[in-house]
């Protein structure tokens, strides 16, 4: 009540919470008045905000683009106004932001004390070691690591088509392939331990996904005890396997062998050479970073590709434009890193897909001190929920064609013509912006190039358009496509 009064005194309105669930009941309730997304003749709407976040859309109407809602006993400042976001974040350093404590228990098995979770000087140290590993110079060599799993997936499709089955669930296919790619680029899959880590990480992901908790509600962590225990056990097994991989790698570097050119190899190299300046990561921290890359990196990238294939299936003219670009840039040569940046139209398509269907539908913060925004004060401890889907679909920021697929809006402007430079945030904002965005762009372009070179595709009649928030923004019923070999 004290916190609520303080927020109200500062002028932040919002829906009335009830103890102990806050506004969760209203959020879980079956929503009425939701805009339909599918019409006759297979016409599909991209106007998804009020469909995926009906409660936010409704509260926005009553309380504007900045208000407070409650997950259990935790206040969340909802922000869908980029100007407010700018004023709120100006002057707050990356290291001074917190991540909501209330999510930490749930995220612990996935991220441990990896970059996504750490704060303050710890975050500065982790980010210092990790950022160089993702530089274009280091990523260059990873294009090859990506081609093999992608080619394997396409070879399987060819076999399917040849045996008379041209329908694939692209979401499922690409999630498996992206998992394999991130495991190869993070810690390698060449030995048995790497493969086992990969299998267990996937198992853990499914387990966590199935434990549907009431985040923020007192004692909710004691719900889903079976899944919690299973995730804990898997977490311990994964840690042990990764520890043995890291120890073997360290020994091999110390005995003079060159480090492997994957992210773990680069982090080990950075840690060993920077160790004297106190800017290294411990073995346990390296374990957590490997898990962080896996969980932070593969599903998001798979979803960026999934939504892209939906959009390209609906716009065969853009499939053709991209194929022409690939022909100009790659021709009969083998795809390599320098070619990727020349695939400019593909870059626009990626941005437009990330705008319409942002795999990370929100960014989150927690104030670790009182934050002044003009004459308002956001009290220390307030959580923040930045509604990226709302901003990406706001006609006031993008114009009346906001819900149309128009990749060319990114032709001359990396911000896609958005009226506010903080209105396009697929990778977050400020010092804590996604560290893996270069890797993602590379993977996206490698995989999409290979697909478009070998197949054209259209939407299966079985597709049901139902974008849903299941941690990330996903197609609830997958993405069935009919593929046609070229
Ligand atoms: C389409 C793909 C991706 C999307 C949409 C995405 C999105 C995001 C977002 C929204 C954040 C939070 C930023 C913030 O709070 O301001 C983030 C952070 C992060 N991402 Fe990504 N990401 C993607 C791919 C990747 C990949 C491939 C990796 C690693 C291999 C990765 C690793 C991370 C890490 C470690 C952070 C935490 C950064 C920090 O707190 O300093 N992401 N990402």
Question: What's the short version?
Answer:
It is found in: Membrane. The protein is of the alpha+beta class and 486 residues long.
Architecture overview:
This protein has helices at residues 2-9, 24-28, 49-52, 54-63, 82-89, 101-111, 120-130, 136-139, 143-162, 170-186, 192-210, 225-254, 263-274, 283-314, 316-329, 337-342, 344-356, 388-392, 395-398, 437-454, and strands at 38-39, 43-44, 66-71, 74-79, 97-98, 167-169, 362-367, 371-373, 376-378, 383-387, 455-459, 467-470, 472-475, 480-485. It is α+β, with helices and mostly antiparallel strands and 486 residues long. It has a domain at 1-98 and 361-425: Uridine Diphospho-n-acetylenolpyruvylglucosamine Reductase, domain 2 (2-Layer Sandwich). α11 packs antiparallel against α12 (225-254) and α12 packs across α14. The N and C termini lie far apart (64 Å). The model has no long low-confidence stretch (mean pLDDT 90). Protoporphyrin IX containing FE binds at residues 115-116, 127, 182, 292-293, 296-297, 300-301, 304, 359-360, 363, 426-429, 432-436, 439-440. It is a single-pass membrane protein.
């Amino acid at each position: 009540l004290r916190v609520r009064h303080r927020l109200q005194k500062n002028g932040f309105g919002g829906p009335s919470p009830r103890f102990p669930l806050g506004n969760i009941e209203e959020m879980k309730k079956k929503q009425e008045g939701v805009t339909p997304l599918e019409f006759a003749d297979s016409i599909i709407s991209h106007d998804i905000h009020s469909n995926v976040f009906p409660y936010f859309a409704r509260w926005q109407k009553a309380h504007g683009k900045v208000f407070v809602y409650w997950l259990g006993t935790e206040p969340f400042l909802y922000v869908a106004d980029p100007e407010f976001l700018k004023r709120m974040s100006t002057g707050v350093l990356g290291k001074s932001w917190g991540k909501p404590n209330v999510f930490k228990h749930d995220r612990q098995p996935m991220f441990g004390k990896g970059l996504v979770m750490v704060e303050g000087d710890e975050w500065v140290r982790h980010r210092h070691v990790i950022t160089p590993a993702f530089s274009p110079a280091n990523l260059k060599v990873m294009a090859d690591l990506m081609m093999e799993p992608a080619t394997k997936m396409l070879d399987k499709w060819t076999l399917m088509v040849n045996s008379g089955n041209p329908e694939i669930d692209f979401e499922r296919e690409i999630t498996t392939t992206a998992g394999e790619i991130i495991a190869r680029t993070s810690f390698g899959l060449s030995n048995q331990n790497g493969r086992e880590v990969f299998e267990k990480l996937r198992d853990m992901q499914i387990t966590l996904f199935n434990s549907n908790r009431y985040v923020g509600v007192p004692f909710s962590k004691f719900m889903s005890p079976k899944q919690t225990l299973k995730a804990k056990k898997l977490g311990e097994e994964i840690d042990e396997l990764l520890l043995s991989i890291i120890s073997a790698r360290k020994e091999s570097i110390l005995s003079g062998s060159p480090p492997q050119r994957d992210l773990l190899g680069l982090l080990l190299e950075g840690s060993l050479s920077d160790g004297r300046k106190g800017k290294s990561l411990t073995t346990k921290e390296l374990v957590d970073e490997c898990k962080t890359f896996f969980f932070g990196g593969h599903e998001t990238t798979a979803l960026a590709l999934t939504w892209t294939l939906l959009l390209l299936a609906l716009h065969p003219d853009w499939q053709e434009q991209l194929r022409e670009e690939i022909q100009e840039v790659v021709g009969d040569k083998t795809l390599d890193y320098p070619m990727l940046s020349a695939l400019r139209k593909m870059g626009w398509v990626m941005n437009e897909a990330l705008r319409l269907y942002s795999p990370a539908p929100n960014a989150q913060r927690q104030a670790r001190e009182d934050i002044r925004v003009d004459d308002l004060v956001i009290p220390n401890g307030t959580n923040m929920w930045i509604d990226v889907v709302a901003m990406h679909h706001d006609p006031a920021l993008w114009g009346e064609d906001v819900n149309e697929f128009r990749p060319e809006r990114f032709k001359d402007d990396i911000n896609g013509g958005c009226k506010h430079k903080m209105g396009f945030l697929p990778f977050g904002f400020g010092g804590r912006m996604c560290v893996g965005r270069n890797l993602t762009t590379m993977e996206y372009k490698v995989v999409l190039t290979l697909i478009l070179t070998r197949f054209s595709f259209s939407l299966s009649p079985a597709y049901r358009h139902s974008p849903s928030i299941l941690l990330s923004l996903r197609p609830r019923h997958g993405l069935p496509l009919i593929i046609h070999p070229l």
